[in-house]
Amino acid sequence: MIQYPLSLILKNILVKYIKVNKSKVYKIPVSLINMTKKLHFLGTGCMMPTPERNHLSICLELNGELMLFDCGEHTQLQIKKKKLPLSHIKRVFISHWHGDHVLGLPGLLMSLGNTQNVGVVEIHGPKGTLNYITHMKQSMIFDSKLDLQVFEHTPKQEELQEIVKTSQYSISCINLNHSVPCLAYSLKEKDVLNIDPKKSKQYGLTTSPLLARAKMGLDIEHNGEIISADMITYKKEGLKITFIFDTRPCKEVQLIAQDSDYLVMEATFLYKEHAHKAEEYDHMSGKETAQIARDCNVKELYITHFSQRYKDPTVILEEAKEYFENTHITYDLMSVIIK
Length: 339
Ligand SMILES: [Zn+2]
Ligand SMILES: [Zn+2]
Known about the structure:
By secondary structure, the chain is α/β, with parallel strands linked by helices. It has 2 domains: 37-191 and 237-330, Metallo-beta-lactamase, Chain A, CATH 3.60.15.10; 192-236, no CATH class. It is built from 12 helices and 20 strands. The protein has helices at 6-13, 75-81, 99-102, 105-113, 129-138, 197-202, 210-215, 229-232, 251-257, 271-280, 286-295, 314-321; strands spanning 15-20, 24-29, 37-43, 57-62, 65-69, 89-93, 120-125, 147-152, 161-165, 169-175, 183-189, 192-195, 220-222, 225-227, 233-236, 240-244, 262-266, 300-304, 327-329, 334-337. It has a 7-stranded mixed β-sheet. It has a 7-stranded mixed β-sheet with strand order 9-10-11-16-17-18-19. It has a two-stranded antiparallel sheet with strand order 1-2. β5, α2 (75-81) and β6 form a beta-alpha-beta unit. The longest helix has 10 residues, at 129-138. The protein starts with 5 loop residues before the first helix and ends with a strand. Bound molecules: zinc ion (2 copies). One zinc ion binds at residues 46-47, 98, 100-101, 246, 305.
């Protein structure tokens, strides 16, 4: 059972009291008002870090909760540079146990263990994760009081496996095609109700706080008339955000990437020059990554995990854009607001 820090709990249970028509007062959860969603690119490099690019780690900020996808060396320092609160990290998802994806874990877990109000932290990873965590803790004086829960996932071939489900989102994983067991992860938000301005206007409701109640699916009373939520709202599909690192193109990549609003994916090599290296080291090129985004109805593609051989990886961006226009390059400490 995950325990959330008090500040996060308060944010979600606090209500605003809004007065309507002198006599009626409605309670609106603050969590419906403050919704922050961001991707923080903490590290965007490959096996050999450079002064510009750290080992891989991406942080997803979702309404106050922080989730880490991989944790390469220096991740905790990058978190501090971004001024993200360590105590809000509740889940860490590990794609695989190559060093550039996990070398930051011992330091991060030590710091989390010495941070107030952390509670339980979950670590999710592929086959072998339980063993690696045990060995990691035994390989040093691991002075941490952290309440760590470790989950090892072995999804069936060509099948997505749901591994986390909350009131706001679910997270699934799938096997990838790398030299060692490796997982991709995808978060899917729950669908929400939004106000249809044309319909609400017909009932004389334009800026009324009553609209917030309708967004919660509740009937409202206005000018003596009962208006059900479905009369003035429409369903907005929750976002799908997918993380795919270290793989060759395969059916599983297509399955998990399908219909992603945001796809964060490795593009280690430039196909024009090093297609053979992508194949030899079980990685992707800019061309291959962009083709997957194009074929899988992805909205925005963020490429990352660049080989240190490219002083300026915009050459990979340019290659990818030939196949998928909505491709973006990532830099260390860059943040993207998710809409
Ligand atoms: Zn890697
Ligand atoms: Zn790898």
